[in-house]
Design goal:
This protein is an alpha+beta fold and 268 residues long. It has helices at residues 14-24, 37-42, 78-82, 88-99, 104-109, 112-118, 124-131, 149-152, 233-243, 249-267, and strands at residues 7-10, 28-31, 50-53, 63-66, 69-73, 135-140, 143-148, 153-155, 158-159, 166-173, 180-186, 196-203, 207-213, 220-221. It has 10 helices and 14 strands. β2, α2 and β3 form a beta-alpha-beta unit. α9 (233-243) crosses α10 (249-267). The longest helix is centred in the C-terminal third of the chain and has 19 residues, at 249-267. It is globular. The termini are far apart. The model has no long low-confidence stretch (mean pLDDT 96). The structure holds flavin-adenine dinucleotide. Flavin-adenine dinucleotide (FAD) binds at residues 29-37, 54, 74, 101-102, 106, 109-111, 113-115, 117-118, 123-125, 161, 166-167, 193.
């Protein structure tokens, strides 16, 4: 299949991008790396007539750090993160996740913002960045707002973005020196989307965040995650079943196994 007719515009800055999207309304779409959008357009699952490419907007490129807060431009690619664009401990954590997304050709083009906006529940950044406590900086023609990722992610392929809005950046706090991290995903083959994801940040200085992902819904941030550290498989099954009651026994076992391993790793 080939995409339907569309116009392409490469935005030079955030204001130009949001103005172009506002003009296009529901017929417009932002484009990051095109790694999810273009296949969807080729299959006619998405049929925007105006594409607004945000991949070269300077304010959305690259990473900066100030007073313990790391800002990752939405157009930063998975490959840039894999190659060390994010500094410090957070950078080590994120480089490991990026390196396991698809394969290098996809990572060269795919962006953090595109992954978060697309909100495929089986994708890596929606779960990993939720566990890392990311905040999403949204820009629109009328100004900006910042949301916790748990507010931004509303469901499978569903986020809190209006048609004229874009993700400008993600902001994260640098984990403390004693923080422990684990990210576990189950895929049938390397490079495939995950069938089960568990992510745990256990930071004595900043709290514990436990996430179960690759569900039929947005990744779930478990309540009272700290109490689960070191939990056995039965407790993990119960914790997963509480946030994903529709899972069959196979899915429940896969998710519980990933969760148990991640919780055991931060407890070790
Ligand atoms: C073969 C293959 C394997 C893959 N495997 C994995 C995997 O294992 N794990 C994984 O996590 N991902 C995987 N992906 C997805 C990949 O990570 C994509 O890069 C990502 O999902 C989308 O990023 P993008 O920048 O290409 O976004 P696009 O394809 O350009 O856009 C996707 C959606 O996000 C919107 N969008 C893009 N940027 C913005 C923005 N800044 N603000 C607002 N909306 C925006 C678009 O309008 C569109 O709706 C795979 C993709 C392919 C093709």
């Amino acid at each position: 299949m080939k995409a339907g007719d569309f116009s392409y515009r490469r935005a030079g800055d955030v204001a130009e991008a949001t103005a172009a999207l506002a003009e296009a309304g529901w017929d417009g779409k932002a484009m990051g790396g095109g790694q999810s959008l273009m296949p969807m357009m080729n299959l006619r699952l998405a049929q925007p007539t105006q594409l607004v490419d945000v991949s070269a907007v300077p304010a959305m490129r690259g990473v900066s750090a100030d007073a313990g807060v790391v800002r990752i431009g939405a157009a930063t690619t998975h490959a840039e993160i894999e190659d060390g664009a994010v500094p410090g401990r957070l950078g080590q954590i994120m480089a490991g996740i990026a390196a396991d997304i698809a394969y290098r050709a996809v990572r060269n083009r795919g962006t953090v913002g595109g992954s978060l906006a697309h909100a495929d529940p089986a994708a890596d950044w929606p779960s990993a960045l939720l566990a890392l406590g990311a905040r999403i900086v949204v820009a629109g023609p009328a100004g900006g707002r910042t949301l916790a990722l748990e507010e931004f992610q509303q469901g499978a392929f569903w986020v809190a973005l209006e048609p004229e809005e874009i993700i400008e950046a993600a902001e994260l706090d640098e984990p403390g020196p004693a923080a422990r991290w684990s990210y576990r995903k189950y895929c049938r083959k390397p490079g495939e989307f995950a069938e089960a994801i568990a992510a745990v940040l256990h930071d004595p200085g900043g709290g514990t965040r436990v996430v179960v992902g690759a569900l039929d819904a947005a990744p779930a941030l478990l309540a009272d995650g700290a109490a689960l550290i070191g939990a056995d498989l039965e407790r993990c099954r119960a914790a997963v079943a509480a946030v994903a009651p529709g899972l069959d026994d196979y899915g429940l076992q896969l998710h519980a196994a990933m969760l148990r391993r991640a919780l055991a790793e931060v407890a070790a």
